[in-house]
Amino acid sequence: MGVANKIRKTIQLLKHRRRLQPFVNSSIFFMENAEQSIWGSITEEDEAGIEAAVASASLHPGPIVEIGALFGHTTTLLATLKGTDTQLIAVENFTWNPFFLSDDEHRQFTKRSLRYILKNCSTSIYDGSAEGFYSANQDMKPSMVFIDAGHDYGSVRRDIDWAMQSGCPVISGHDYHKEIHPGVVKAVDESFGSDVRIFGSVWLHVSEGLQS
Ligand SMILES: C[S@@+](CC[C@H](N)C(=O)[O-])C[C@H]1O[C@@H](n2cnc3c(N)ncnc32)[C@H](O)[C@@H]1O
Q: How many domains does the chain have?
């Protein structure tokens, strides 16, 4: 690259630094925690937990509900593992992504990436907040809930509480990691005590007597 090009690039970087800074911070976070999370999604080790969860859920009627889909990596994994007739509902309000896309860009990216499973795999997106989904579905009894939206204590507690009051037999989620997500660990420990299996950073609770 010639000197003039380098200067032009530097000027561009300075000009856009406000928009680039959060992206740089996000990149550093995911580069330094690559064993915990891949750009906000799951690792291969975590996948084993989701596989065990879906196997347990397959013994029960009711939809699988995912809270927090991001770009649909776990949605696609759940759709791949579930029975073809089992409904999968991914609840996503498009408020966070690691690349700082706008809400609309994020929505379009995810919906286009999931086009095949939305059309062919009994899968739908609830485009709205978890809170809205819970109040619209007070009588739903899912076979499994996978929790991976807000990672603060209050959000995880709210998601677990809805899943428990629904009578859902298989409750699972992501980011059980004391240093990075203490709120997740606190909410899970408080709700289930030692009755939880951990796979990487996926946690899994199966109601007593229903273990597969
Ligand atoms: C960590 S990402 C989910 C990652 C995804 N499960 C995966 O592993 O590929 C969290 C997602 O939850 C969404 N989210 C956060 N709070 C939410 C809420 N209250 N209702 C619905 N979605 C929410 C964010 O927009 C984000 O896309």
A: 2
